[in-house]
Amino acid sequence: MSAGDVVIEIRDLVKRFGNQTVLDGLNMDVRQGEIVVVMGGSGCGKSTTLRHMIGALTPDEGSVRVLGQDLASLDEAGMNEVRKQFGILFQSGALFNSMTVSDNVALVLEEHTQLDGSIIDMMVKIKLELVDLREAADKYPSQISGGMKKRAGLARALALDPKILFYDEPSAGLDPVTSAAIDRLMIDLTKKLGVASVVVTHEMDSAFTIADRMVMLHRGRVLMNGTRDAFERLRDWPQDQLGELDTTQLLIRQFLRGDAEGPMADAGPGEQAYADDLLGVDHSKLTGGRSVQTTRVVPHMDKPGLFRRLFKRSGAKTS
Ligand SMILES: Nc1ncnc2c1ncn2[C@@H]1O[C@H](COP(=O)(O)OP(=O)(O)OP(=O)(O)O)[C@@H](O)[C@H]1O
Ligand SMILES: [Mg+2]
After folding, report:
1. What pTM did the predictor assign?
2. What is the residue extent of each domain of the chain?
3. What's the CA-to-centroid distance between 171 and ligand 2, angstroms?
4. Is the domain defined by 6-223 classed in CATH 3.40.50.300?
5. CB under 6 Å to ligand 1: residues?
6. For 148-153, which contacts have Cβ atoms below 8 Å and span 24 or more sequence positions?
7. What is the pLDDT of residues 191-243, one digit of tens each?
8. Test site for ligand 1: of 15, 21, 26, 48, most ligand atoms within 8 A of the Cβ
């Protein structure tokens, strides 16, 4: 495997829970050496997509190939071999509270390798050094901050020298400074170790800092897949030229900017639901604060052609 090789390939992935179709023909790739950020409104299928990538769910239709293997065709032993090449950073860091930071990292190596104790000790030190946590090696999770817990979880995720790192909401619950430090660490590790990273996040600042590529999901499909530049251009699309964007593009722009005031004009009931859905607005949970306004701001004109050409230049696709 070398930089640019496809390490995850998802084709026409369909997943249903009961009669709800959660993933509805999803296509995306992840390449070695890149950070791909997966985003979209609440319930659009981000975590479900991630869970297919790590083999925790099996597709109803379509395929998920990871490191060249079709996950659905693997037996338990084969799946475990592939899983050893993942590092997963859970939301809380998911450390064992009764063990020190270094023992938490060592545990993975003890479980999955036949290495000597002294070699494991050395490897643990290397992993902790990578996340700048050597000084906390002998502390218990309860004695360290949230950001340090994340880094400890990351050291553990790195224990087996993974080829792919998965992060679900890495900045959740962190203050902006700590969150920025974790962003920096994710970039450093991805570039230093040459791995691929898949990050699910709601934090737009973080997304735009770390992403090489961004994938925006909506109702279990890819709404837009493009470089960070392409998404940035859409986010910063001038207010006085919004007429050049179609409804979908306007909504993506609104999502990226986290604007409460939407540019959606003349939204009928169907479009309102579409907007709420895309932006993750749940009216039953709103208490009168934030809401998506649908007042007329600009006339809506559909010019996907222009937009497509623009994104083609930067290697992006809309669908
Ligand atoms: N195991 C499951 N059984 C039934 N329904 C599920 C299951 N997992 C997810 N869903 C449903 O699938 C939809 C997508 O869920 P998913 O967790 O992938 O969303 P998400 O994009 O990660 O949302 P969030 O941003 O809130 O984390 C939701 O409607 C959810 O209720
Ligand atoms: Mg989720």
Report:
1. 0.81
2. 6-223, 236-318
3. 13
4. yes
5. 17, 22, 40, 42-48
6. 149/92, 149/93, 149/95, 150/89, 150/93, 150/174, 150/178, 150/182, 151/182, 151/185, 152/93, 152/95, 152/101, 152/104, 152/105, 152/128, 153/89, 153/90, 153/92, 153/93, 153/94, 153/95
7. 988 999 999 998 899 999 999 999 999 989 999 999 999 999 999 999 999 99
8. 48
